[in-house]
Amino acid sequence: MKLDSSLSAVVTGGASGLGLATVRALREAGVKVAIFDINEDSGQAIAAEVGATFCKVDIMSEDSVLAGFEAARAAQGQERILVHCAVVSKGGKTVSKDKETGGFKRMSTQDYAISAEGVLVASYRIASIAALGMAALDPLEDGERGSILLTSSAAAQDGQVGQVAYGSLKAGVNGMVLPMARDLMELGIRVNAIMPGIFATPPMLRFKDMNPAMYESLNNSVPFPKRLGKPEEFAGLALEITRNSYINAQLFRIDGAIRFPPR
């Protein structure tokens, strides 16, 4: 798929971190971009800066996501590219010490369900709505109509203590890729996922000032190069997957060769 001004894209979580880097990279390639994000102030400012369309979207709400796609398509036409970076998840161990009672407590079913909605269900929701719109497009070379790229995580394979929800549900995202790609193959819509390791996104960068020793430890935990990933490196991979029409139903781990220990 040749990336140029004839194409439209939707990037969820596009107001910060990996999503923002992807928005910038797509705009540099000339692609029209709609930013889906819950943070209206940042989203509007970035959209004005890079020449994108901002849509305030809550990925936990079907109505909000549908309204976002409707607004994006009205502004820039049907998207051929979807990059889904937004996520909502709760942390916690399956069973842990309860400091208040001195006994034990478990991560609640409700917290796990919220994570399931924000990781796995949201990924299906956004991908399937995008695919439905792409299906009506005229095909490009090779019969391609669109590219869907989901964001998984290295935690899908190396889930650590306290990541029972996040790790298992990102593994669910991985498991969605092949059957969804097969569902959509006759429509010419590709589906892939990226599994980033530790990247220099806003949550990680907070440690740089708050706990420099921990931040340095995170850098040193990466085999090579010994640093956190740059969001631009994620975006570069995202664009190559989107460009290369022979990449389909694949999971790409980008992590500096790190393998997470239990803690």
Describe the protein's topology.
Elements: E1 8-12, H1 17-28, E2 32-37, H2 40-50, E3 53-56, H3 62-76, E4 81-84, E5 95-97, E6 104-106, H4 109-134, E7 146-151, H5 155-158, H6 164-184, E8 189-196, H7 202-210, H8 212-220, H9 231-243, E9 251-254
Parallel strand pairs: 1-2, 1-4, 2-3, 4-7, 7-8, 8-9
Antiparallel strand pairs: 5-6
Helix pairs in contact: 1-9, 3-4, 4-6, 7-8
What would your notes on this structure say?
There is one protein chain. This protein has 263 residues and is α/β, with parallel strands linked by helices. The chain has one domain (8-254): NAD(P)-binding Rossmann-like Domain (Rossmann fold, 3-Layer(aba) Sandwich). The protein is built from 9 helices and 9 strands. The protein has helices spanning 17-28, 40-50, 62-76, 109-134, 155-158, 164-184, 202-210, 212-220, 231-243; strands at residues 8-12, 32-37, 53-56, 81-84, 95-97, 104-106, 146-151, 189-196, 251-254. A 7-stranded parallel sheet has the order 3-2-1-4-7-8-9, with helices on both faces. A two-stranded antiparallel ribbon has the order 5-6. A hairpin with a 6-residue loop joins strand 5 (95-97) and strand 6 (104-106). Helix 1 crosses helix 9 (231-243) and helix 3 (62-76) runs parallel beside helix 4. The longest helix has 26 residues, at 109-134. It is globular and about 60 Å long. The chain starts with 7 loop residues before the first strand and ends in a 9-residue tail after the last strand.
